[in-house]
Amino acid sequence: MGHGHGHGSAADAAHASGRYLTRLSIAFGVLLAFFVLEAVVGWMTSSLALLSDAGHMLTDVLGVGMALAAITAARRPIGTKRTFGLYRVEVLAALANAVLLFGVAGYILVESVERFQRPQEVAGLPMMVTAAAGLLANLVVFALLRKGADESLNVRGAYLEVLADTVGSAGVLVGGFVTWAFGWYLADPIIAVGVGLFVLPRTFTLARQALRILVQQAPEGLDLQEMRSDLAALPSVTEVHDLHVWTLTSGMEVASAHLTATQDADHGGVLTAAQRLLSERYRIEHATLQVEPAECARRCQELTW
Question: What whole-number distance in Å separates Cα of residue 265 and Cα of residue 167?
Fold first, then answer.
C-alpha cells in the first residue's frame, strides 16, 4: 500500500495573505471607528437608517476581523492536538456574524414598521454628515483592499463586504439629505428597510456557506461522481471508494480516497497521477490517497460507515 499528501496552496496562500496583514489591520481600525460613530450618532438622532447602516458596517468589521483571524491562525504551528490548525475559527465566526446580523436586520425592520405608522422627527443634518463620513471610510478601506482582493480569498471576502456596504452608506446619505432638505421623515424608515433587505440575502448566504463547511458537505459546484470516474479512469486503477471531499475553511478544499489498483501496479506512479489529476482538474492540493490491492479493498466494504 502507498499513501501520500499533496502539498501547496493552503500554506502558500496563508503566507501570501500575510503580506496584507498591515492593510487589513488598518482597514479593521478604520471600520471599527466609524461603526462606533454611526451607532452613537444613529442612537442620539433616532435615525433607523443610520443604525441600519451601522449594523451593516459591523459586518465589514467582522469580515475583516475574520480575515485577520484566518491569516493569524494559518501562520500558527499546527501542534499535536490541533492537527487541522485553527482554520475553522473563521467559519464559526462567520456563523456567529450571520446570527447577529439576522437579529439586527429583524430589529430594524420591526422598528421601521412602527415608524411608518408614527413618523418620528430625525435630525437630518447629523445623519447626513455621519453617513458621508461612513461612506468615506468605506472608500478608504476599498482602496486598501483592492489589490489584495485579486490574490487572497480572505482579503477578497472582506473587500466584497466593504463594496456592498458602500451602497448602504450612499443610501443613508440620500435619506439624510431628503430629511434635512424637505423634512420628509418617512425617508428614514424607507432607507432603513432598503438597507435591511439588502443585508438579509448576504446574511443568509453567509450562514448557508458556514453551515455547509461545518457539516462537511462537498464544496459547491463539485461533482463527486465525475471525480470518482476520473480517478477510476487512471491507468492501473480498477475502483475508487471512501472518496471524501470537504472544505476546511474558505478556499481550502481537502480530499481523501482509497484507490484499488491492479496487482502489478506501480503504487507510486498511481499516487502521483491521482495527485496531479486532483490538483490540475479540481484545484485540490491537499489530498490523502491510499493505493491498495483488491484484497485490502474488501475490508473497506465490510465497514458500516
Answer: 59
